[in-house]
Amino acid sequence: MGNCISSSSVSAPVANHTIPSRASAPVELPPEIWREIAAVASSHSVLTLRQISRDMRSIVDSLDQANLNRINQCTDSTVDLYQSDGGVRSVTRDPEIQSVMARNENISPALQAFFAQSNDAHVRWRLARNLSLTSEAVQQTLAQDQDADVRAALAGNPSLTSDTRQEVLAQDQNGEVRGFLALNPSLTSDAQQERLAQDQDAGVRSCLAFNRSLTSEARQEALAQDQDASVRRCLARNRSLTSDARQESLAQDQDADVRAALADNPSLTSDAAQQALAQDQDAEVRKFLAGNPSLTSDARQQTLAQDQDAEVREALADNFSLTSDAAQQILAQDQDEWVRGALARNPRLTSDARQEVLAQD
Which of 122, 263, 333, 341 is deepest in the core (most CB within 10 A)? Predict the structure, then answer.
């Protein structure tokens, strides 16, 4: 079965986001020391390198004199200044520490604004992913960032609730940026959903189709008829797909992967759709349906209990929603030991069916 998001330039970055490269640190210390410095830095909102050192006595004490001198010598020469509440505050200029501070959800709006202007793309990328990034001014700055990875990080941030910022990113020239926005659970604007549903990149439309915030019947209907099977497959997996009409339409889709995705969706409640999938020519589709916890119909369970494919029957036997006495009796007498074994382990197995299984074995 194919993956849901797999057919465009958006697919790989969404699955494995590229992290912007980071400038080298001005202080040459062993990597393990920098990791510990960064860990301490994450607990501060404002600090200088000397302040960090005071909170890290065990680390500082373990340094040789040469490394300790490096810290002391660079303290006054590696700080930047920014404005905060009318006063001037200092922060280490080192990008290794700044990047950790930028992701700290407790940093002040002033410090967020400061990091948004950083020359280091990695610092801005960390900031763009910060879940406490609620300042529209900072979001506006990052939405216009020259680095596409920074804009993509912002586009996928659930804190991005501004329609204005979403509109800007929905028109971004980079497909990865639009894809991250399309996946954002905070994307509730019908106007932006409509724009992305018509995106020329199938990967972007796939991301939108998979977004659980996609509850509009009109948007779902449009995506259910998309010419690209990967888009329809993502929609079929979407747990917000509760419309009987959409489910029944996708159950008749010409692409087996789309039907399998629907058969595996726990939100599949349409009896007509389940009936169609239970009789599907593709055994993989029937197997996904047999294991679906929403399969509660006695009639559907009995049909699948007599399926010609042993893997389908085993999936049903292992389904905790298997409550049909008739289906359990059929499976208890199954000739395949794997089917009977799965049934024997099922906590919903009735005493009569259990006795039947024991009699067979």
Answer: 263
